[in-house]
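Minutes, project check-in
Item: structure for the 412-residue chain
Input as provided by the requester:
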Amino acid sequence: MEYPLMIKIEQELVSRPLHDLETALDSCMESLDLEHTFKGPRIAVAVGSRSIDRIAQVVTGVAGRLKKAGFEPFIVPAMGSHGGATPKGQQAILERLGVTGDASGVPIEPSMETSCLGTTRSGADVFTARCVLEAHGIIAINRVGLHTGFSGPVQSGVVKMLAVGLGKAEGARALHEHGFGAGHRIGEVADVVLSKAPPVCAIAVMEDGTRKLSELHALAGSNIRKEEPGLLDRAASMWPGIPLREADLLIVEEIGKDISGIGMDPHVTGRGKDIPRGDAPPFTARRLVVLRLTPASGGNATGIGHADITTQAFLDATDRTVTYKNVLTSGALYRARVPLVAATERQAIEMALASLGGIEPERAAIVRIRNTRQLEELDVSAVLLPLLETAEGIRVKSGGKRLSFGPEGDLL
């Protein structure tokens, strides 16, 4: 098979890195006025499962400042059913993020036990981790950004962590059983938590287009609900993407839960999220090939169902128990469906190209990315280059190299 020439391009993404993390943390903690907010020493620090830039430093910084102020913080995995919905699995996810008891200087309480706080006006049960309810206060740390399933003014962020993450497997199940069209229930559930749980504060984390830590925002009580929509708009304005409208083939080298809730960001791939009526995805591809599963995903292959073709190596790295627990909780079973499986990466790409019909492989419009978090550099086939020549912020880095493979069929 004749492969197309591939051109490596760089795109200028929004870059606003936070240079002085310690000063930003000092400012956030001071503005929260914790001594008057919390009514006792035991403080639950909620941490999710996502790979967030410098998350371990943020968590350690918050924990250290709490201890210095005389509090007794402990870390709670706030990640719904992730990690196979087991204490050991959730603690292992934190460890892969660099969040450990030794590094943070505080204990981790990964228990999956919950208590029901009541029911929302639309009928969703509200669960929260029991150890959190027994604390004197909560500090939730999470990135604000676009969600892979829900749309609306509140998506992925502190509010969702309160509504789903802190609810463990029971909380995730209770919300997701209403479907991804019920995103408004996130706010309803969070309102119950805010009214019935110990006092809640938050450190809202924002990343720029290069996925570097950009901003920290301190939120407290009812202000969490009021201020997060504005932060979401700001985060969305920095969201990275593929600088094309369409392609014949998108090659994603790796996916994983550490990259996106469904392994690969649907706002990048154009697959996996229902688009509001009247809108169109920013990018679409006729074929999508996924080559590998990240080690940090812990075997969770959620999202592979959005691919057309994958590899045997991907399946070998999949933990079915962990994956099935995740999709059964969310109700989105299709996200774990297995696409066509190729013996090698070379065969996977050749299968995709052969399936296009009427397009010679060397003329196929191909986009290749490492994953949906790292989009500063990507490879595009030569046929796409004219569409990028007038695009703002695009620079050709190198080119003229055809797709090539190693002796075992691995993409080079």
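Outcome recorded: The chain has 15 helices and 15 strands.
No further action items on this chain.
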